[in-house]
Amino acid sequence: MRFMFLLCILPSVYIVYMPYWCMSLTMATDTRKRVALVTGGGSGIGRATAVRFAELGYSCVVADIDEPSAKETLGMLQTPGLAVQVDVTMATSVEAMVTAAVQHLGRIDCAFNCAGIESAPAKTADQQEDEFDRVMGVNAKGVWLCLKYEIAQMLQQEPVVSDPAKWADKPDVCRFRGARGSIVNASSLAGLVPLAYTSPYCASKFAVLGLTKTAAVEYAKDGIRVNAVCPGPVATPMADRVLELSPPDLRAKQDPKLFPVGRFAAPEEVAEAVCWLCSDACPFTTGEHLKISGGI
Ligand SMILES: NC(=O)c1ccc[n+]([C@@H]2O[C@H](COP(=O)([O-])OP(=O)(O)OC[C@H]3O[C@@H](n4cnc5c(N)ncnc54)[C@H](O)[C@@H]3O)[C@@H](O)[C@H]2O)c1
């Protein structure tokens, strides 16, 4: 009788668990150290994120146009990694960064495209054409080039499942948890709302959201997630430079006393959100932008 019962339920067990078993055959289980790549890793938010990735056990590729600062960040990490000099405005340089990361660390699980520059403060009619090109080159084209080469690499990687046992009774979820990679781009609050005197910067950060959401829908079925963060004011060297150069009326608006939380964010507070978006904790989150602005 017990044998008959087993014979009856076995096919249904097989049907329920078959996708998971099939997946186990085609996807690797993720037992190795994960690899994160951070552009703009030599300063501010990028540096804090590389440090946080390393605290979480990732091996890190710290990439920056300023090689000494990238090396300095690497020296702050708890895990072994790699410092790479990159100019995100040049395709050959970005391709070489991705190649170096894969040669040294095997694959790229997560990428944070954080390299960015501010624009000189001026109203639109007073902005210079070469300033527009410079800012769009780093902030928009740079993110596009990073996406292009990172995604090309991720498409070649086997999908990995970080914790198959945890999802064994949810075969559908498990199917989606095979991840080739996760990318986060640095947009800004200025990518969501206008910020006077910063038309090139604002345009570039709105563009980052367009790039993020387009790539997200293009590669969702390949197991590659693409999201963005939109921080408000963060206490970094960039923020110091912006404040110093801003005209008095713009500087007055940046007074932390006017913000709901009453202060700038620490770069570590953005880093934490980036690491969460990159992690396997949010497999259904793609094409999103996360505003981190202390209520602004
Ligand atoms: N600080 C803020 O208030 C704030 C707010 C919202 C968004 N952001 C964005 O966050 C990102 C990081 O900003 P941050 O405040 O840490 O700035 P930061 O100036 O401290 O760091 C930026 C890093 O990018 C690097 N970089 C610049 N041009 C590069 C290039 N062509 N190739 C490679 N690396 C390059 C710099 O060398 C520097 O290390 C930027 O994209 C910025 O626009 C900053």
Structural description of this entry:
- The chain is of the alpha/beta class and 296 residues long.
- It has a single domain (32-163, 177-291), classed as 3-Layer(aba) Sandwich (Rossmann fold), CATH 3.40.50.720.
- 48% of the residues lie in helices and 14% in strands.
- It has ten helices and nine strands.
- The protein has helices at 2-26, 44-55, 67-75, 91-105, 129-156, 171-176, 199-219, 237-245, 248-253, 267-278; strands at residues 28-29, 35-39, 59-64, 81-85, 110-113, 160-161, 181-186, 224-231, 289-292.
- A seven-stranded parallel sheet has the order 4-3-2-5-7-8-9, sandwiched between helices. The chain has a two-stranded parallel sheet with strand order 1-6.
- Helix 2 (44-55) links the parallel strand 2 (35-39) and strand 3 (59-64).
- Helix 2 packs across helix 10 (267-278), helix 4 packs parallel to helix 5 (129-156) and helix 5 (129-156) packs parallel to helix 7 (199-219).
- The protein is globular.
- It starts with a helix and ends with a strand.
- The relative contact order is 0.14.
- Nicotinamide-adenine-dinucleotide binds next to helix 2, helix 5 and helix 8.
- Pfam families: adh_short, adh_short_C2.
Write the layout of secondary structure elements.
Elements: H1 2-26, E1 28-29, E2 35-39, H2 44-55, E3 59-64, H3 67-75, E4 81-85, H4 91-105, E5 110-113, H5 129-156, E6 160-161, H6 171-176, E7 181-186, H7 199-219, E8 224-231, H8 237-245, H9 248-253, H10 267-278, E9 289-292
Parallel strand pairs: 1-6, 2-3, 2-5, 3-4, 5-7, 7-8, 8-9
Helix pairs in contact: 2-10, 4-5, 5-7
